Amino acid sequence: MLDLLVAWQRWIYDGIRSSIIEFDQSGDAWLLLGMISTGVVFGAIHALTPGHGKTILASYLAGSGKGFGRALSVSTVLAATHVLTAVLIAFFAAHLMERSFVGGGRAPALEFLSRFLLLGIGFWLLFRAIRVRKRADKHEGLGVALATGLVPCPLTLFVVVAALSRGVPEAGLVFAGSMLIGIAITLGLVAIATVVGRRALMKLATRRGGAIETLSRGLDIVAGLLIVVFASRDLLN
Question: Considering its fold, how many domains does the chain have in total?
């Protein structure tokens, strides 16, 4: 499965790199416009692969009690942070990234920071669920999105670095922007599906005499445990 994923990533990267080289040679603005639609599609599909925070996002939203609007804002901030972190590394801190393609353009230092912050958020959710429940902090979702998104998008990172090496940073930025849109679409769908599932579960529980407060705390505990498990696993690997 990993070999297939690496081959698929390489195919996407090679196609975009060819477009960047052609744009560098011709300066044809239509190539940039074509890159937008390609980037959106690739971004949406690319976000389906592991490493884009879908599990963390769904886990948090399942226990947060947020509606569709707030859930979409959290997923959008996550997508934006995920892509913009890659852009910033490419422009200002390329030394942080692994150079091998198999390494996927990873930035181990930022990944460690991301998992460490998520571990703290997971324990906070557990603590909040155990104590007397209070209304969730409106900035809590922002913290989850920013912490998760610190892991840079490897495909965006590779493409922006390639564009910079050819002296056409605008091509890399156009691709990054279109990737952001595509990733945001996929993560937005995950957010919507999670809210729908949580509301259906709450409705079913109340019909059977379940207490909303008890179920809400239970979802908070599950969300906190899942985030702690995933963050701890990545820290130990």
Answer: 1
